[in-house]
Amino acid sequence: MNTTFESRTLTVSIAREADAVYQFISNPANLPRWATAFCKSIRQAGSDWVMQTSGGEMKVRFVPPNAFRVADHFVSPAPGVEIFVPMRVLPNGSGSEVVFTLFRQPFMSPEKFAEDIGLVEQDLRTLKSVLEK
């Protein structure tokens, strides 16, 4: 049986060149600077990145650097659980467009999904502010 999850794709336009935006968002060390609604701090532990969130520690891993500006990443809220988080940076004129898709997880209530959408929107506004300074 195939399962399709409810999703919401959110975007933000940033007045910075796409490669510069990609370099910033694809570096896990920068997460606490822009994903402030989710990531309180981050540290590298061997080859892993471990975030401190309001829900406790979670591992995060990004896809390898690439020429397509794909910054997909995987968040592990518990051992053996990975949540796919697709993220892209697209050229938009002389600036860029950051595209972030959030999937409603099977365990997530509609209210929690709406709350997460609001948090991602907040983080994208913060990203824009940080990169346009």
Label this structure with key terms:
133 residues; alpha+beta; five-stranded antiparallel beta sheet; three-stranded antiparallel beta sheet; 26% helix
Please provide the ordered H/E string of secondary-structure elements.
EHHEEEEEEEH
Number of helices, counting only DSSP H or I runs of 4 residues or more: 3
- Tell me what portion of residues adopts beta-strand conformation: 35-45%
- The whole-number mean of residue pLDDT values reads 95
Account of the protein in words:
- 22% of the residues are buried.
- Strand 7 (87-92) and strand 8 (95-103) form a beta hairpin.
- This protein is α+β, with helices and mostly antiparallel strands and 133 residues long.
- It has three helices and eight strands, in the order βααβββββββα.
- It has one domain (7-132): START domain (Alpha-D-Glucose-1,6-Bisphosphate, Chain A, domain 4, 2-Layer Sandwich), CATH 3.30.530.20.
- Strands 2-3-4-5-6 form a five-stranded antiparallel sheet, with no helix packed on it.
